[in-house]
Amino acid sequence: MPEEIHVGDVIRTKKKHPCGSDQWTVTRNGADIKMKCEGCGRVVMLDRETFLRRRKALLVRGTGDTFPLPPATELSEP
Ligand SMILES: [Zn+2]
Question: How far apart are the CA of 77 and the centre of ligand 1, in A?
């Protein structure tokens, strides 16, 4: 699965939320990802790595912003 993330993506997570839903919509894309539970509307923020680890399937491809990672040289600066 590509590691692209778009605002508006609807994804399925490996674990269900306590409300019973396993579907989430990405509402913010950046160094951290915000996603909203489709079942109860709860919003959580995850770092990209955690988000990608929890994402099991992409159900709907969003059309919102992607977040291009800066070149590695920029990442290594203090
Ligand atoms: Zn929920």
Answer: 38
Residue 17 alpha carbon to ligand 1 centre in Å: 5
> Exposed, middle or buried by CB within 10 Å (0-12, 13-18, 19+), for 27?
middle
Q: Which residue has the tokens 């894309």?
A: 29
Ligand 1 center–CA 56 separation, angstroms? 16
CA of 68 to the centre of ligand 1 (A): 29
Distance CA 53, CA 71 (A): 22
| The pLDDT of residue 67 | 74
What pTM was estimated for this model as a whole? Answer: 0.81
